[in-house]
């Protein structure tokens, strides 16, 4: 907008609040909303929101004096533009044509570039971060981290990667620029220069929350599968391509496409298997199906078997890289298995007082235990209640006599 704030007239009763004097002793007051007042942006924002009314979040967004209109078709865009112009004209607010962009597929908005594929970091901003000089004191580190913090959503494990720098901000830590801090500084710059494209979330698709915490940091990620990512597997797609091109390099020699058009993997059975000298044909599982396969093999149809049995069943028919590790993690974190492990523990029997006998030999107990090593003699160790001692009492041919003797 053209001199945005100055387009708003000030109420006569409030004009004295903007008064200022010149060195000559003259006093002036603003007749219109001026820059530099604490509540100018807020006042302008509320006016712009009021003007847009029902169009806000319904094809239009506004941040102070930046208005963005988004539609699916060009006709809708023209219709919306007409409405917006009419509303702003009604209250005599003017746009600056040199700052306006019409009918573009991508645009810069609040430091980001919005495109149909997703939201990107504004290249001009990332270049200025890349040119940031090596900090020489805490203030400069704060300044650098503040700039990067704006784009931290584009940097995986930002807190962890920036730790050597944030450590320098501690009060009792002397400022010492080491190779470790230089590495962290370069690493963050590099991550900002090569950012991923953040896709827009689909409100109707499934969302997944992943949380983690350690002594170094705490984090949570809200994830959603990007529609195209389900069809393209980063590991399998290159292999299929190589097979299509009749490539016979060792990386693809164990792979083939079976009669049903499925990518399969040939592998030897483990040495302890009864058919250890034979090979097995495993169907290659793409990344997006791993969890479903694990779920059905272990939980749905597997009866929550332990890791080795689950892995054995899985590896008979299926294959993917790191299947061993993934299966171990899956079984380890299975909530049903965890609840069983803790809920069905066999507790030791409670201790009971032994009834006191009246005289020696009146009452005794025999603990039967074993299996033990075979000895030349059969030993029987009764516990005598009265004297509370173990009386070793060797007996020959105990079994033979068992029918006739009290022992
Ligand atoms: Zn389980």
UniProtKB/TrEMBL annotation:
SUPFAM superfamilies: DNA/RNA polymerases (SSF56672). GO terms for molecular function: RNA-directed DNA polymerase activity. The keyword Ligase does not apply. Residues 1-114 form the Reverse transcriptase domain. Its EC number is 2.7.7.49. It holds the Pfam family RT_RNaseH_2. It is an enzyme of class 2 (transferase). CDD domains: RT_LTR. Keywords: Multifunctional enzyme. This is RNA-directed DNA polymerase. It comes from Trichonephila clavipes (Golden silk orbweaver).
